[in-house]
Write a structure and sequence with these properties.
Layout: H1 10-33, H2 41-47, H3 54-65, H4 68-77, H5 83-106, H6 112-120, H7 123-157, H8 163-211, H9 243-253, H10 256-262, H11 268-284, H12 286-301, H13 308-316, H14 319-357, H15 363-381, H16 391-415, E1 416-417, H17 421-442, H18 452-473, E2 480-481, H19 484-488
Antiparallel strand pairs: 1-2
Helix pairs in contact: 1-8, 1-14, 2-8, 3-8, 3-10, 3-11, 3-14, 4-7, 4-12, 5-9, 5-11, 5-12, 6-7, 7-8, 7-13, 7-14, 7-15, 7-16, 7-17, 8-12, 8-14, 8-15, 9-16, 9-18, 12-13, 14-15, 16-17, 16-18, 17-18
Amino acid sequence: MPTTLPTGTSLQIFVCIALTALVGLATWWKVRSGPKASSDSRKDVFLAGGGLTWVFVAGSITLTNLSTDQLVGMNGNQMLLLAWWEIAGFIGLMILAYVFVPVYYRNKCTTVTELLERRYGGRSIRTLISAIFLIGNVLIYLPAALYSGSLFMQTLFGSNLPIIVFAIVMAIVSAAYTMFGGLKAVAIMDTYSGFGVLGLAFLIVILALAAVDFDIVTGVPMERLTMIGGPDSPIPWQTLFTGMIFIQIFYWSTNQNITQKAMAAPTVKEAQKGVLAAAIVRILIIPPIVVIPGVVAYKLFGDIGDAAYGRLVGEVLPGWLSGAFAAMVAAAVITTFSAVLNSTVALYSVDFHEQFIGEVKDHWKLGAIVSTVVTIAAVAIVPVYQNAESIINLLQQLNGLASMPILSAFIAGLLFRNVGAPAAIAGVVWGVALYAAYSFWWNPAGIITLHYIHFMVIVLFTSVLMALAYNRLVLRQTERFVGWRGITTVD
């Protein structure tokens, strides 16, 4: 198979490389001209020295989430219904701003798992949850971001180069941001790239609609246009009132990859302003850019799955502008990968290395080592995702293995007192095992046909009940329900 790019893409490639370099240069200049690093390398690497203003908090949260997982994956479903993931995200961000941000700041957390240790009075639950986050980042978030971004680049440029080549290039650049700039560099690049990504993505929506004379109804099946999902759709309408809200609470409020950015502001109010700005972007701008191009692609090309977005962009944008968009998408992948990588390094350094190996005198050096190992592992896993029928649906189902069990530990720890760490662990283990049985045995065999979003509610509530039952029956401790007061007070 030839490995050269076809003719006619030289301008695209040049513009892509030039803009990517320009964003990198602007990021370097901003980092260099900012306040000098403090003597606390942990805070510098993982919390940007506590100096992110609301603009960079908002930009980093938005671009950490908005990568090609959304642009490629959601448009790859080629139906409007998938917009509910983004619309519901507004609620999750509001809960982060007004419920969890104050809690994290009062408890002076670097990782979300620190809060669990304080609430339960034991390290074991913190270690378990951190391990689950680490495994999820290495096996799911990092390789999925590389795969979806590489697929987009390959489709846009019409390249014969293997996807793994694109993945390696983006992984190396991403790791460099994390190793040399920490969270501050990631957040700044997120924000600079965000203006370009959102602007060009919205332009694509307009150009795509213009390509079909602003008529996406004619010739498109109603199931791809409706916002009320049927029983066999990716999001049945009833799930909006069951598991959807809990998925959003987990993702936006207890997920280290997102909350770490909100912890990096100088004050609670500055962090809340950033989260609220991200919520406004989430509800006003994100939904149309992640579904309308996919539906238009269906009308123009038919059912082509995850290749829809890249092919549409290649069709509706002029060569030089598609090269610019490729640069912005590359930046989105790079910043998402860098942000998740930085969170991964933080979890390992704070929750494992400092606790079980020894004091870390230089988090920059340790971070570089861990970043290199994790990046190599993520790249190696990229080919696994090439067999996925729909990457976004696959990600949501895989996330279910950890999301509800982890959220159950936060619920039991925040709403109750006198619950032991072993009880929380019992609840988490129960939840993981229950969802795994459903996903890999009961659902495929037709034993339980309940939609996975519905089933997540069952996993969540039974995990909390398991924790409380274990606490009372095995640990011989009587829990005490404290409700909202338990969330708003510091132990």
